[in-house]
Design goal:
- It is a single chain.
- By secondary structure, this protein is α+β, with helices and mostly antiparallel strands.
- The protein has 9 helices and 21 strands.
- The strands form 4 sheets. Strands 9-10-13-14-12-11 form a 6-stranded antiparallel beta barrel. A two-stranded antiparallel ribbon has the order 2-3. Strands 4-5 form a two-stranded parallel sheet.
- A hairpin with a 6-residue loop joins strand 20 and strand 21.
- The longest helix is centred in the C-terminal third of the chain and has 24 residues, at 400-423.
- It is globular.
């Protein structure tokens, strides 16, 4: 039996119960970032980022997703044209940038001297990267071929560039780097979406690579599967599930995280459990929590002692392989607290969403800012940046008719350009990323070639 099986055969002691007295006060605070309740920050003491969108979310009451999807069961949805009303006013490239919402965790990892301590914070970052998907049931706009997005956050000490490097199949590449040369974070994502009758399953294929330059360490992992339930009837709800393995290629340390499917009665909804092992496969830390709330770590011996003390259930936890089961897809009652085991260390806690988030596509405060055009920004952006897309801008402003018209125009322009290239036997040339071998995984990847922030955009295509 391997170490992963041994871990998941163990009694967890993490079943939610009524003992809320055991709460955050029992945990050591590993994450010292101050949460400001969603308030905006200022950059250079002048610009305050917006706290809301220009218009509320467009109602879907008069639209039937079933009329579109009933012919698509089992099909790959990236090739299906969906009405704008089912979107959210962000490009998928902007959605990718939400991985960076909790960049403070990377900075924390950079500051730690012990590799196991660094690994557990990197694990928390990997979980936090999917936290913004909670209740986000709108579909981001498919990026146009050649579309880009840049994000510079001097207050958080990084800048990011992403590019849509392929249209069929859709492939997005991104590269983020520390402004102080502390880290680089990059990846390639080629999502596979399938409709299964009651739900849509998203498989975010591609590898995330995090390099901590000071420690000369490289971590890689893949994201869990995501399932949106009740596409036809009922309340939409999301679960993440699957095993995520984070590998430190420099030390041989590994973190195995199990994003649990909700299971019968929703007992496991949102739960994440796992462990860190060193290169000799000795278990060094246990990690637990919810991807919608917080993550904790603790010593395995203390964890085992607590398990015996509380008489936790010893029944083997069953892994579900699909989000589509025989049971109804009713949204389970969400248990909003994580029972904290005394002696645990808090690794990460989600930033509260603004009070009006439900009327704003369930955006986080961070997501609210992603399509904002700051003063004088337009003249600095590449002409391919998502912020300049007229269909996304129209939807953000609440003009559904203009959004539909512009979306159709852009898609037709893209088809015409592809047809013209085909006629001339011309291959599409990416601008900022090239295919190469990822030196850490040995797999083919899209790697940043540099130069974007030199602001020379004369060779950028006219896609809008």
């Amino acid at each position: 039996m391997n170490s992963e099986e041994e871990f998941y055969d163990a009694e967890t002691g993490l079943e939610s119960d009524d003992s809320c007295e055991v709460s955050f006060k029992d945990a050591l605070v590993f994450d010292n970032k101050q949460v400001t309740g969603g308030s905006s920050s200022q950059e250079n003491g002048v610009w305050e980022r917006r706290k809301t969108l220009p218009a509320d979310m467009i109602s879907k009451n008069n639209f039937s997703v079933w009329s579109i999807l009933k012919k698509c069961i089992g099909m790959e949805l990236s090739k299906i044209a969906m009405p704008v009303v089912f979107n959210e006013p962000l490009s998928f490239l902007q959605r990718i940038s939400e991985y960076m919402e909790h960049t403070h965790l990377i900075h924390k990892a950079c500051s730690l001297s012990d590799s196991i301590d660094r690994m557990q914070v990197v694990a928390a970052f990997a979980v936090s990267a999917v936290a913004s998907q909670w209740e986000r049931t709108g579909k981001p706009f498919n990026p146009l071929l050649g579309e880009t997005y840049e994000l510079t956050r001097e207050d958080e000490g990084y800048r990011l560039i992403s590019e849509q490097v392929s249209h069929h199949p859709p492939v997005s590449a991104f590269h983020a780097q520390s402004l102080k040369q502390e880290f680089e974070f990059h990846g390639t994502i080629y999502p596979k979406l399938k409709f299964w009758g009651k739900s849509v399953e998203a498989e975010p294929r591609g590898t995330m690579t995090l390099e901590l330059l000071k420690h000369k360490e490289v971590y890689t992992w893949t994201n869990p599967l995501c399932c949106v339930h009740n596409i036809i009837l009922g309340k939409l709800w999301i679960e993440q599930y699957g095993t995520v393995e984070i590998v430190n290629h420099s030390t041989g340390d590994k973190c195995v995280l199990n994003f649990k499917p909700c299971g019968m009665f929703g007992k496991e909804l949102h739960k994440v459990e796992g462990h860190i092992q060193d290169k000799s496969k000795k278990k060094r830390r246990v990690i637990y929590g919810k991807w919608t709330e917080c993550m904790y770590s603790m010593d395995p011996k203390l964890y085992e002692a607590n398990r015996k003390k509380t008489g936790a259930d010893t029944k083997k936890l069953k892994q579900e392989q699909s989000c589509e089961g025989d049971e109804a897809d009713e949204m389970p009652d969400v248990q909003e607290t994580v029972t904290v085991i005394p002696g645990s260390a808090l690794l990460w806690r989600i930033t509260p969403r603004p009070a009006h988030s439900a009327q704003m596509y369930n955006f986080t405060s961070f997501a609210m800012t992603l399509n904002e055009l700051e003063p004088a920004m337009e003249r600095l952006l590449a002409p391919t940046d998502c912020r300049l897309r007229p269909d996304i801008r129209a939807m953000e402003n609440g003009d559904i008719d203009a959004a539909n018209t512009e979306k159709e125009r852009l898609e037709e322009k893209q088809r015409a350009s592809r047809k013209e290239r085909s006629k001339d036997k011309e291959e599409w040339s990416t601008r900022w990323f090239k295919t190469a071998t990822n030196p850490h995984t040995g797999a083919e990847d899209w790697l940043y070639t540099g130069g974007y922030f030199d602001r020379n955009y004369t060779d950028c295509p006219n896609i809008y």
